[in-house]
């Protein structure tokens, strides 16, 4: 996706302006802009006390806005496309009521507000088995259920990236007031709000949105979108439990087979830790659904969300979901959809299996995720690779990249590389180098030729990224803040001069 051409200044004008800006600009900060806090590996007693949780998060909570312009425009467009204004509004309101029926004030109080619609945010995805049979046998109250699937998603509308990190349901945590237990029991202790509270404390990041999905949704939604395509590295045979029997290779799955793939763990008994391979397949199925949904138009997308509304509890209404989908429309699943799992050590204690968090490795993984990098630095860290299904055909995109260093350089974020040297292929070559170091770089052309390379950063938090880009390309280029004369669609704009072509 090439960056758009922009109007640049002549060399003399640029020199005068940049010198003035540089003289006013403060010295670079000596730390990165990563917002992740230290993940603890175990939840602290204080933070997870049921008695003080609501008051604590009420103080943090910002007033939620419902006036997002893009969301309003999308709803109006949807009404126009559906026709019959009154009926269309009734249709939209019906979807919203079903989507948000379970989002009570406790949940909304716990969730963190974003500063800008384009800011990266975290969303908690839960898979809960709430079949009619189970509800009849045990009742429909939340304390009769546990979360079978826990996925922490980082969604970045600005750089158009998605990261899914599975948290094993057997992860052992100290929940303070509620004692020491498996993390999935947090749902039965306090429902969605308490589950969010426990996970965000455990992961060390704020959670802005929540979606609880009944497993039956996989059947309905996958059938609604006409099935999905998945690729399996090894064959799967699970005759006694799910009945699934799939050969290695690419398959087009209907809703039922997709659900069975998400539930199948005994098919991986020979590899050990079937839950881990099942979790990897769940992330693959989610990515395949996202790929298909984002490729559809607004009306088709709305129909899919309407189907999903019968199986989902979320704080997001139709307008919010459509707005996010438009922002993520250009998501490249093969290169910008990352997948990983909390590193744990399996332990058998008192006749019960627990997953004990490898705290140091977990903290490092969350630092990478928060920097917009793949969860794993190399394929060696992902023991499911080559066995469970993968999200993309480009497996290399799931690994690598460098996070901010002690020198305060931040090797993450978006970079628009503009060719101002007039040398064919220069911007593409530099973009590829930057992508290999953890950035999301795109190539384009500058409107004018320049003798010297320089960088422009958008916002104070992007300065560390600009200095990291300068370190990668070398040559000591000038770094300046954007004064409005350069593109704003990336964290950093890199304009290549003739000096970079030598």
Descriptive account of the structure:
The protein is of the alpha/beta class and 502 residues long. Helices cover 36% and strands 19% of the residues. A hairpin with a 2-residue loop joins strand 13 and strand 14 (352-357). The protein is globular and about 70 Å long.
Which stretches are poorly predicted, pLDDT < 50 over at least 5 residues?
Answer: 1-68
Helix content: 25-40%
Structural class: alpha/beta
Counted by DSSP, the helix tally is 16
Percent of residues in beta strands:
15-25%
Shape: globular
The overall pLDDT average reads: 80
Please outline the major beta sheet. 6 strands, mixed
Using only C-alpha atoms, the radius of gyration works out to 24 Å
Ends apart, CA distance between termini? 26 Å
Q: Order the strands across the largest sheet as they lie in space.
A: 11-6-1-2-3-12
- The total of beta strands comes to 19
